[in-house]
Design a protein that fits this description.
The protein is of the alpha/beta class. It contains twelve helices and eleven strands. It has a nine-stranded mixed beta sheet with strand order 3-2-1-4-5-6-11-9-10, with helices on both faces. The chain has a two-stranded antiparallel ribbon with strand order 7-8. Strand 2, helix 2 and strand 3 form a beta-alpha-beta unit. Helix 1 packs antiparallel against helix 10, helix 1 runs parallel beside helix 11 and helix 9 packs antiparallel against helix 10.
Length: 302
Amino acid sequence: MPKPIILDTDIGSDVDDCMALLLACASPEIELVGVTTVGEEARKRARLAVQLLRRAGREDVPVYAGMSNRLLLQKPNHFRGYDGHGLNIEDVAEDEFEDEHAVDYLLRMARERGPELTLVPVGPLTNVAAAINLDGEAMDRFKELFVMGGVFWGERAQRGEYNVSSDPEATKVVLGLNAPTTFVGLDVTLQVVNDPERMAQLKGADTPLTDLAYSMLAHYQARLGRDVNYLHDPLALTCAFDEQFVQFVESPVGIVTEEGERRGVMELREGDSPKRLAREVDGSAFMDFLIERVIELGRQLA
C-alpha cells in the first residue's frame, strides 16, 4: 500500500524542490496527499506546484499556499526569492490551488489522518512551526517527519544550512515536537550530484516531462554558472519511503537562536532532544534511481 505523504516545500527557490515534486509523482510507493508551499511569495510558489503537478499528470493533488514571512516578524526575513526556473505559470490561476491556508491544512490533516501520515518539509520550517504553535498536540499525531535541513559534520557545520537557519525560531519549535523526526542534512545531500552525464540521460529520453526536467535543471545551472547542481530535496523525500541509499545515526540536536555569527547553526549537544540524522549516502546510486524514475514517468505520460 502506498505511503501517505505531505510535501511541504519552498518550490521556486532551488530547482531541487521541483525535482522532489516530480520524484513524488514518479514513485508508486507514495500516496501524495497534498503539497504545501512556504517562503517569500508562497502563493506564486503554489502556482508553480500546480503547474508541475499538471505536467506530471497529477492534477488530483491539492496545493495549499502557506507562510510568506518567517515565524517572528520582527526578525529579518532571509527567505530566498521566487524563481520559476524558466517555467511560465501565467496560465495557472490562483483558484487552481486551495483557499485553505497551508497551516490550517496541516492541522486538519494531523487531526484526521496524523498517525498514518508522513510529513516531509524540504524548505524553511515556518509552516510546520506555526501549526505546532497553534496546536502542538495535533501535530504530534503525525507518524513521522523527514526534514531536509541542517548540517552536522565537517567545516560547513559551523556555517549552518539555509532551510533551518532562514528561520531558527521555527526550527527550534520543530525540534520540540515529539513525533519521530529525521534530518537529512547538507553534509550528506552535497554528495548527490547532478552532472553532465545525468543531464545527457534526461535529454536523450526525449519526452515532454524529461524535456521539462532538463530545461529547469539547465536554467538553474546557467544561473549558477556551472554544469553541476545538487539534489538535496529528492534525497530527503526518498528517505521517507526508501532508506536503501542512506545510513543514519541518532544524536541530541539543538539550534542556536541567539544573535551572532552562529545564529541558525544546528549543534550536536547533550541535553537536547535526540533526532535521527542522515550520516552517509551512496550518491551515485541515488542519482541513478532518481533519473530512472523521472524518465520512466516521462515515458508513461508520452
